[in-house]
Amino acid sequence: MKNFKKLFGILLTLTLILSVFCGCGDSKTKSKNENSKNEKASSTDSKLTPKEKDDSSVAETKPIEEDWSAFNFTIDGEAIKLPVKYDVFKQTGWEIDLSYIGHKNGYVLNPKSETASTIDTFHSKYRTVDNRYDIYCGIGLINNDAAAQDITKCDVRVLSIKIENALKDQIAYPKVVLSKGITWGASKEDIDKAFGKPKGATRAENLKYWSYTYQIENQGAMNLEIYDDIGLSSIYLIKYNK
Question: 201, exposed or middle or buried, with CB in 10 Å at 0-12, 13-18, 19+?
Fold first, then answer.
């Protein structure tokens, strides 16, 4: 009987020792598997593009450093410099609707002739013929060629764009950026700092806005309308024809 108890004790001790070793083996295997998973995850993460990792890392378009008199600006990121061929300008998405202006069969300009006023342009996202009152975008064109040309082959030398209603109604509008980073909503102080206060500055007290006109003889002019509440809401640029 004593021998049986002694044998039973030995067997019990061996069982406990074996269970400890098995447990350690499972723990090591589990740790190894977890490390392998972490390594795979780390490898996958390193293949992600910067945009997938952090959208905020995508840099915005750098402001145009030149003065306004260089007639450089962007519309939704498309760089434009007046004068510019109409075919280049319409890459911004803004186009003339010849039927709307009563010239569905074409509109021809004689050599060195220009449009008497700005012509409406439309954009599928911002301004259509049926929905044209919140935003205005018009262009003036000139035929610098020696022969008569259809207006769509001429040069854009005037841009007039107004978004006052769109700002007040909080609807979509194109992002226009002038030199020194001036864009919609800029305050009078912002514009004074960027371009200086012009001699041609007038105040419409009843409507609570400033009209700024900058002009360089024989080169061109720029007019900005700056409201007290919504800031810059109207831009007019004209490059004179030499």
Answer: middle
Say if CB 202 and CB 170 are below 8 A apart.
Answer: no
Residue 127: which of 75, 81, 86, 83 has the closest Cα? 75
Task: Locate 79 and state its tokens.
Answer: 């760089």
The C-alpha atoms of residue 66 and residue 43 are separated, in whole angstroms, by: 45
Question: Per the structure block, which two tokens stand in for 159?
Answer: 């841009």
Q: In terms of DSSP H, where are the helices of 84-151?
A: 86-89
Distance, in Å, from the CA atom of 34 to the CA atom of 40, rounded to the nearest integer, reads 10
pTM, two decimals, is: 0.74
Residue with tokens 């979509």: 172
DSSP codes joined into one string, 181-227:
T-BTT--HHHHHHHH---SEEEEETTTTEEEEEEEETTTEEEEEEEE
Q: 2-53: per-residue pLDDT in tens?
A: 444 444 454 444 444 444 444 444 444 444 444 444 444 433 333 333 333 3
Query: Beta strand pairing status for 200-204 and 209-216?
Result: antiparallel
